[in-house]
Specification:
Structural class: alpha+beta
Number of helices: 6
Number of strands: 8
Order of helices and strands: HEEEEEEEHEHHHH
Length: about 220
């Protein structure tokens, strides 16, 4: 089963790599490396700069399509495992941070997904900056809470942003330059993500699928 997981994890890493290099990056390599230990069973980390010697800490990479100095950097990682039926690859957690420096010290925002989080929504966005409104809302033990400590919900487990959505955001806001034809790359990747999410939802709700099929047959 570990070999099957590794194969699916490597395939997913290639998909991410092709999406990045086809839109806002050049020569980025995404790899899948098994983690030394996980309470969730066998888990692979997917990211840039990983190896057997470094299986858990992906490196940031520049967002540029040429050799010009980049304005932004991305730190991207996924932890993946097999689902409860030991059949399909599932994302246990993911992180996508946008930074303005190679050392990843100055963060604009990061998109997180943590499947087993209970304190706040599993898919969320955290934004770095200042907010007079937050200062006015804070009180008591939260009086000094900063903006980056808020977890803004972004669609939950099934409808969270995909990597393609984040890339489109960076392009639309003019933080990065894009390759010609990037729209087609994003559309292919987004379609792939949405189909996977739909299939997962169908497996978890066969009664809804059955009812839908009956309704369609009756029309």
């Amino acid at each position: 089963m570990t070999s099957d997981l590794h194969g699916q994890a490597r395939s997913f890493a290639r998909e991410l790599q092709e999406t990045l290099n086809g839109t806002i990056c050049r020569d980025i390599r995404m790899v899948a490396v098994v983690r030394p230990f996980s309470a969730s069973g066998t888990v692979f980390t997917i990211g840039s700069g990983l190896s057997k010697a470094n299986p858990t800490q992906p490196q940031g990479f520049p967002l540029r399509t040429d050799r010009k100095k980049p304005l932004a950097w991305m730190n991207l990682s996924y932890q993946v495992r097999m689902d409860d039926e030991l059949t399909y690859l599932t994302i246990h957690s993911s992180y996508c941070g946008i930074f303005t420096d190679e050392t990843l010290e100055t963060c604009l925002c990061h998109f997180d997904f943590e499947r087993e989080k209970e304190q706040y929504t599993s898919a969320h966005l955290q934004v770095h900056g200042t907010s007079p409104a937050l200062a006015a809302l804070n009180r008591g033990k939260d009086a000094k809470r900063s903006l980056d400590k808020l977890h803004f919900p972004v669609g939950g487990k099934r409808f969270r942003p995909s990597l393609e959505d984040i890339i489109e955001f960076l392009i639309a806001e003019r933080f990065v330059d894009a390759r010609p034809g990037y729209e087609e790359v994003l559309e292919r990747g987004r379609e792939r993500f949405q189909v996977k999410q739909l299939r997962a939802a169908m497996r978890r709700h066969p009664d809804v699928v059955e009812q839908f099929v009956k309704e369609q047959a009756a029309t």
